[in-house]
Design goal:
The structure holds two protein chains of two kinds.
Chain A lengths: L15 H20 L17 H11 L4 E5 L10 E5 L7 H13 L3 E4 L7 H7 L2 E2 L3 H9 L3 E5 L14 H10 L2 E9 L5 E6 L13 H20 L21
Parallel strand pairs in A: 1-7, 2-5, 2-6, 3-4, 3-5
Antiparallel strand pairs in A: 6-7
Helix pairs in contact in A: 5-6, 6-7
Chain B lengths: L5 E6 L4 H11 L4 E8 L11 E4 L5 H11 L3 E4 L11 H20 L6 E7 L24 H20 L2 E7 L10 E5 L5 E2 L4 H14 L4 E4 L5 E2 H7 L3 E5 L3 H11 L6 H9 L8 H5 L7 H10 L14
Parallel strand pairs in B: 1-2, 1-4, 2-3, 4-5, 5-6, 6-9, 7-11
Antiparallel strand pairs in B: 8-10
Classes of the chains: A alpha/beta, B alpha/beta.
Amino acid sequence: MTSTLGRVVNFPVRDTASRAGAAVSRAAADVGASVTRFTDEQTGLVDDWGRDPGLVRTMITASRLRWDVTVGGDQRLPRRKGALIVVNARAFALAPIYAALALSEVVDRPVRFVGRPDTAPVGAFVRRIGGLLDHPDEVAGALAAGQLVIMGAAHNERLRKVGRVDHALVGGALAAGVQVFPAATSSSPIGRAARLEIGPASKAPRRRRGPLSELELADQLARDIEMLLSELGNIRTGTPIDWLPIGGAGGA
Amino acid sequence: MVMGGKRVFVSGVGGELGTTIAGLLESETWVGELSGIDADPPRHRLHRTVFHRIHPDEHDRIVDTVARFNPHVLVHVGVWEPDARAAPSAAATLTDQAATSILGAAAECSALEHVVVRSGIEIYGRGRGALTRPSESAPIAPTSDWGRTVAAIEHTAARVGERVGVTVGAVRLAPLGRLLRQPGVPFSVLADPPFAVIEDRDAARAIVAAARVGLAEPVNVVAAGAITALQAARRGGRIPIPLVGPDWRVARALSFLLGAPIPDHVSEALHRGRLADNGRMRELLGVMPEHGTVDVIDRLYHWPSIIHQPARVQVA
């Protein structure tokens, strides 16, 4: 028997009624998710994805030693439904992690982030603080269950430029039928000040029936994040470097 | 699909789950005649169910019994979990024999309309990069003996369904955790991953609902929430035993010698976790588990160990 034996199991195609039922089920899951408030979560237990609220609170407290995050635009996020938030990322800045921790507090909901490794002990620890695997089905599952998920774009060494946004993960959001928000992050390697600014939900330029929709939406997200980054203004490091006409530290 | 006076056949009616299912089916209005089969007698008293005690390797008697009953609905829960009622190799053989005989016999029945099989979320496997909470559409890649066994049952049932043109539903149950009852509970120091369970009665209700609605696809049946082995041990006042690397081999051997073997799917759950997305349960079955994972674990620890019943009449 091969390990893929079960793949040959064929079940009848779902009919229209079951599709409608699926929509109702998703809506019910959304409502259920809204009940989970970050401040009400029980400690000493893990949630459906293995996130440990007690450890997350400890991490939030510890993260304040490193980052002082100002969050803006959170009012744009849905109060009950799931949403995917795409942020720009810089090497070693841990933008999705500090953004998720800061946003959890502001919106009073658990916020997860994409990008946990699947090896112990690092992967196990990252799962405890809300990490999800970098897999479209994993992201789609969390979004369909009404969760807020943050994912990072690929690194780009040029300031105010956003790397590639993984269109497969964006496709997960489309499959789950949730909105996708661009967000700009800014932090400094030498200072505590950091910022997360969430923009209005991105929309693909055209309606497509196939996978082009996720590709175009991913490109649009990168453009929207770049726009948000330019709106953040010039970089402030708090050092004489700020007087120079170039930015070599901090920023996006 | 609403049915009336249907003949329902339950395989594996002697197990805890099978007996509970038969008990629930007895109170269903759409069920007419009820019959069951197993190698062991039912755990509780059943009023309407006609029980046949037949060993899984008695193919002719099984075929004769099932064909004579000519069921409309077959509920196949006649599976042997490794190290529960039989050693892993014997469990796999018995499960395969039962599945082949019973599903094969049902395929010969002219009245057959629907088949429900018991499966497990072990079917998704926990290989590197496996989804944390796989939904029913996740690829099937079992990585344990039990996972491969339930995949084979689903495969056989689906083939029978295709050949005779009946609907087949697979109820993929979360583990019914018992290992945690031991005085010392091993846990992985490096991972201590989360897992979910399902209470016996919730599992039975889901299977009965699958039979009632004519489930025609797989569905994950998992209690809400999750827990880790360390958290469970703490809740139950058990001694958590931290293990890493080769310690697990020693612990498994020791546990085996003490009469509580740890099968590979349980060991896998303790290393890699075992969760599943139950988001479609209400849509497909119309029921949700009454107990969350933490509830189930708490109830597990509240089982009395031994109940001493004094004789009503002292005769000596």
